[in-house]
């Protein structure tokens, strides 16, 4: 198992946050390629990590790193061709917030709190986190950077992957619509399977590890 850590999290907690998708992807590529070379593996990406995993695989090209890819598993995000066309936070989030958001820059503090609560619906500590300004700032920073990176993802050419794709969605996900997950079939050059996890929300990794 190789867990990719993004800036501002875990052992990279002190690293500057990155809100540009391509800069983020390129900063991770060499380490991922190095680990993947000589191994058989399945790539998994959740939320922003779903399209990030797709692009990491594409940028492996025909290198030795790509030789061992057995499949891509994704959750919590539309397929890349749809994601690249979405404005702001995406239509599903706009429907939940009850208003159109042309850009993450237009999000109010109340919008961010509502989005954070929706994404972590089963975490009883979230409301307490939002009440403490310092803790809220630490929690919101990575989320806001992720959403900025997602919004900047605009250059998807829709290239298909040779490996199978498995999509996972929680039946109670308030952030990503079912149809959005099914759009992964547009970049599937092999088998594409969709699964719904009953009783699970947006945070599949936390709620159904």
Structure description:
The protein has 209 residues and is of the alpha/beta class. It contains nine helices and four strands, in the order H-E-H-E-H-H-H-H-H-E-H-E-H. It has helices spanning 21-36, 48-60, 80-83, 91-97, 109-119, 126-131, 133-151, 178-182, 204-207; strands at residues 41-46, 69-75, 165-170, 192-197. A four-stranded parallel beta sheet has the order 1-2-3-4. Helix 1 packs across helix 2 (48-60). The chain starts with 20 loop residues before the first helix and ends with a helix. 30% of the residues are buried. The model has no long low-confidence stretch (mean pLDDT 87).
Summarize the model shown.
This protein is α/β, with parallel strands linked by helices and 209 residues long. It has helices at 21-36, 48-60, 80-83, 91-97, 109-119, 126-131, 133-151, 178-182, 204-207, and strands spanning 41-46, 69-75, 165-170, 192-197. Helix 1 (21-36) packs across helix 2 (48-60).
């Amino acid at each position: 198992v190789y867990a990719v850590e993004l800036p501002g999290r875990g052992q990279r907690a002190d690293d500057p946050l990155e809100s540009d998708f391509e800069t983020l992807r390129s900063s991770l590529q060499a380490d991922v390629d190095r680990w993947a070379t000589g191994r058989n593996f399945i790539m998994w990406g959740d939320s922003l990590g779903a399209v990030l995993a797709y692009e990491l695989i594409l940028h492996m090209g025909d290198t030795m790193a790509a030789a061992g890819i057995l499949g891509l598993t994704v959750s919590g995000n539309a397929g890349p061709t749809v994601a690249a066309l979405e404005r702001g936070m995406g239509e599903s989030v706009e429907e939940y917030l009850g208003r159109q958001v042309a850009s993450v820059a237009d999000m109010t503090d109340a919008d961010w709190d509502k989005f954070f609560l929706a994404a972590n619906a089963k975490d009883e500590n979230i409301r307490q986190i939002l009440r403490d300004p310092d803790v809220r700032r630490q929690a919101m920073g990575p989320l806001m950077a992720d959403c900025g990176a997602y919004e900047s993802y605009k250059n998807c050419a829709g290239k298909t992957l040779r490996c199978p794709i498995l999509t996972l969605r929680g039946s109670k996900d308030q952030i990503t619509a079912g149809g959005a997950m099914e759009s992964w079939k547009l970049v599937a050059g092999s088998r594409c399977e969709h699964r719904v996890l009953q009783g699970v929300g947006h945070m599949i990794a936390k709620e159904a590890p």
